[in-house]
Each structure stands twice: as C-alpha cells, then as structure tokens.
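Batch manifest, entry 17 of 40.
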Amino acid sequence: MDATLVAVSSIITSGVTIGLGAIAPALGEGLAVARGLAAIAQQPDESNTIIRTLFVGLAMIESTAIYCLVISIILIFANPFWNQAVAMAGGK
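Output type: structure tokens
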C-alpha cells in the first residue's frame, strides 16, 4: 500500500465528509427553524414548548455536523492506516 495513496484518499474523504457534514445540517437547521417559526406564528400560546423542542432538535442536528468534523480531523491527523502504509513502504 502506497503512503501517498493513503494520504490522498484521506484528504479527499475528509473533504467530502466535511462538505456533506456542513451542507446537510445547514439545510436541516434552516428547515427546522422555518417550521418552528411557522408553528409559533400559528399557535403563539405554545411558543415555550415549541422553542424548547426546536432547540433540542437543533442540538441534535448540530451534533451531526460536529461528528463529521471529528471524522475529518481523525482522517487527516490520526489516520489508523497511515502507520501501516508507512511501515509497508519501508519507513519507521
């Protein structure tokens, strides 16, 4: 296994992961806030309940983005295949 191939595939996978991890939660949060505001506009008496549920939902959506960020950082800085590729290439 070539170390360059591992490095290039890690960088590309990390880029795709952070790209999708940024786009999808942004769309989800936008839709959730829009629906939450529409629900508050229709039932202003239930705004406290709607806002509390909305914030819990936003936190869940945001955790997906943070998870993608962590996976990207692991792929770049702590790739488990990197040491194996360097060892097979004759390095340390």
